[in-house]
Structure formats: structure tokens, C-alpha cells
Write a structure and sequence with these properties.
Shape: flat
Distance between the termini: 58 Å
Number of helices: 13
Radius of gyration: 25 Å
Strand content: 25-35%
Strand order of the largest sheet: 3-2-1-4-7-9-8-10-11
Helix content: 25-40%
Largest sheet: 9 strands, mixed
């Protein structure tokens, strides 16, 4: 009997309730007490699961995480609930009523799809992972919509489903895998599987080269709370061959319009820092067009403009000072402005933010805050000082 089976027993479930919310500092004392009345391996499994549930709150929320079951890899690699819910809504908007979720992991995407009213076949070849996905479907009351199957995804017949969703493994024994053909299963297999159904979505790494995107796919880069989470190749939409950036929790979606690169121009009153999904989707030109701006440097994804035009796709800063890269001058300026809290952002600079912060902040911290951008302006190393607009 493995740990999951032990935890699904009546004694295991009762023990999970008892250790819920245990502070890591109290684990030893709790374990010592519980081992007097419960098997030691069950106590260890329950405390381990409690730790995983606490880690999973950031992705699944406290209510779901407190009922679900996790593996260490499952917590690490599962889709954040808000991202999965957005994708499920896109599937539903396409008229999809059934999805074959291939490489389902612990079931995060299957759960979101089922909550959108979509019937799901969730497939994973790892026995423990598949069992965990099944336990999660039951724990959240979705077992009637989610069928979990332990199988090799390359051998699954998806003909009975409106769509497929494939989330290939992108980690190996040496860490992250960057070559799409080294995914498990390879991207080429996933693309062919996608083309067999009316609709499909393939989850890939955000760093996928644009030239690796099939011409009949729509490529979408997704960020959540400012962090780029994934890229998705969509098949069966009305915009094949296009790109978009989607920012959650909005959602705010910026479609590509094929604009030419923005011109390089002098530093204006405002600097715009595009969201990471916008940058990955190569849509900085669309943001520059929105705000009437240009680039600080032809190779740097910072936009500058003379006027403030709020946009969800970039964070605006009002620039107060521009100076050549010089640590002593920056330190003097920060002392003059009584800056005690300094945010350091960089693009096109080799300087480490923490190192610079240590060098320039005065020992007696002032009451003000500022942001310094280490970048290049028309090729020259430059420091721009400002604050969020």
C-alpha cells in the first residue's frame, strides 16, 4: 500500500484533518504525539501531505488545496488554478463539450475543464500521478465529469472527444528541457494529435522560439499577476497563424497586428515596462502604438513616451532623472532625494541589482522610495530614475 492509499483510508483521512495547518516548527512534537496511536508511516505520510497542501495554496487556493492530494512534482508542475480556468473558458467558448487531457498530472487542468461543464478524459502514464488525479476529482465532487485513465498518451484514441489538451513533460533528470522535440511526448507528436480533432491546445514553455510555432496554430503567451506562466498553441480557432498575449487575472488580451518595430527615440517623461507575456509574444510594438511611444534602444523592450496612457499591458513610470551609468553619482542623487527604498530594474545591463542596492543606499535610510532602471539609451549604458506613474 502506497502513501496515497493509506491517506485515502478512513484512518488516513481522519489523520489528515488532525494535522491540517500544522506549523513546520511543531512537526516533530506533533509526529511524536501521533505515533503513540497511529502507525509511524501513516503519520509521516499525513504530515508530508499537509506540507504539500500548504505549498499548493498559492496555486489552488486554500479551500481546494485543503481537500486535494498532491505529490511533490504535482505541486511544482501543475497549472495555477486561475490559468487553468481561463483556458477552460476558452475551450467552452469554442463550443467544446469534451476534452482528452493528455499528460494530466494531478488533474489541475481537468478540474478547471470539468468546472466549466466539460467532460474530461484525463490520462497519465504514471500510476501514482493518475491515482492522485482520480482522488482529486472525487475530493472536489467532479468524478462524474472526469474519467482518469493510467495509460501511455500516445496510445489513447481521442476520436470521441471534441478537443485535446496536451501538457508534455518539460523537465528531465537534469532540469528543464528547452528543445520542444525533447518534451515527453515530443512537440511534433502533440501537434499531430492536435490536428486530429476540431480543437486543441498544447501547453509549451514560454521560451519556445516563434519559428517553432506551426503555421496553423494561434500562439498565446499567458502571464498571471505579472509572472509569465506558459505559452499555448491553439488549433481550431478563427485566428490561425497569429499571436496574442493574455494577462490574468483580467483577462486582458492583446492581439498581434503585425506592426513594424517601433522607432528609437529620446527619453520621454514616461517609461513603460511591458508585461513579460507581451515581450515573449513579440508585441512590444503594439504597446508602443497604444501609448504613442518608441524604444529607448533598438534591442531593449522598454518603451518611452511623453504622455501617460494607462494600459494593462505595461507598467508606467514617471522618469525624473537620466544619467550615464555612474555608481557615485547615483549614490549622491539618492542621498539628496532621501531615498531609503530602491527598486532596481535592468535590461541590457550586467549589473546585479542587489549589489548596486548595497553600494548606493545610505546607511540612514530616507523616507522616500524610487525605482532605477539600468539599461541602454541608443546604445549607451544609462540609469533612469523615477516612480510608478
Amino acid at each position: 500500500m502506497n502513501d496515497l492509499e493509506r491517506l485515502l483510508s478512513p484512518e488516513g483521512r481522519a489523520l489528515l484533518d488532525e494535522v491540517r495547518g500544522t506549523d513546520p516548527a511543531d512537526e516533530l512534537a506533533v509526529a511524536t504525539r501521533l505515533r503513540r496511536t497511529h502507525p509511524a508511516d501513516l503519520v509521516s505520510a499525513a504530515l508530508g501531505q499537509a506540507r504539500l497542501r500548504q505549498r499548493a495554496v498559492a496555486k489552488f487556493g486554500a479551500e481546494d488545496a485543503g481537500r486535494m492530494f498532491f505529490t511533490p512534482n504535482g505541486v511544482e508542475q501543475s497549472t495555477r488554478a486561475g490559468v487553468a480556468a481561463y483556458r477552460a473558458r476558452r475551450f467552452a467558448a469554442l463550443g467544446v463539450t469534451s476534452v482528452a487531457d493528455l499528460c494530466c498530472g494531478i488533474g489541475g487542468d481537468a478540474i478547471a475543464l470539468a468546472r466549466a461543464g466539460i467532460r474530461v478524459l484525463a490520462v497519465d502514464r504514471d500510476p501514482l500521478t493518475a491515482a492522485t488525479a482520480r482522488a482529486n476529482a472525487e475530493a472536489l465532487g467532479l468524478a462524474d465529469l472526469i474519467e482518469v485513465r493510467e495509460a501511455d498518451v500516445t496510445e489513447v484514441d481521442t476520436a470521441a472527444y471534441d478537443a485535446v489538451f496536451v501538457d508534455p513533460a518539460r523537465r528531465g533528470g537534469r532540469g528543464r528541457i528547452f528543445d520542444p522535440e525533447a518534451y515527453s511526448p515530443p512537440l511534433s507528436w502533440a501537434v499531430e494529435a492536435a490536428r486530429q480533432r476540431p480543437h486543441a491546445a498544447l501547453k509549451v514553455a514560454p521560451g519556445i522560439p516563434h519559428e517553432a510555432v506551426p503555421g496553423d496554430a494561434e500562439a498565446e503567451w499567458v502571464s498571471d499577476g505579472g509572472d509569465v506562466k506558459e505559452a499555448v498553441l491553439w488549433f481550431g480557432t478563427d485566428r490561425p497563424g497569429t499571436v496574442r498575449a493574455t494577462l490574468l487575472p483580467g483577462p486582458h488580451t492583446l492581439p498581434g497586428r503585425g506592426l513594424p518595430d517601433p522607432p528609437v527615440r529620446p527619453v520621454g517623461r514616461y517609461l513603460y515596462e511591458p508585461d513579460g507575456a507581451v515581450i515573449r509574444a513579440h508585441l512590444v510594438a503594439e504597446v508602443a502604438d497604444q501609448v504613442g511611444g518608441g524604444l529607448l534602444d533598438a534591442t531593449i523592450a522598454y518603451v518611452t513616451a511623453d504622455a501617460l496612457h494607462p494600459t494593462p499591458y505595461a507598467t508606467a513610470y514617471e522618469i525624473t532623472d537620466r544619467l550615464p551609468f555612474n555608481v557615485k553619482k547615483l549614490k549622491a542623487l539618492l542621498r539628496e532625494r532621501e531615498v531609503g527604498v530602491l527598486t532596481v530594474k535592468k535590461r541590457g545591463s550586467a549589473v546585479e541589482p542587489e549589489e548596486l542596492r548595497r553600494k548606493v543606499l545610505p546607511k540612514q535610510h530616507g523616507p522616500h522610495a524610487a525605482t532605477v532602471f539600468l539599461t541602454r539609451v541608443a546604445g549607451a549604458p544609462t540609469m533612469l530614475l523615477g516612480n510608478p506613474a
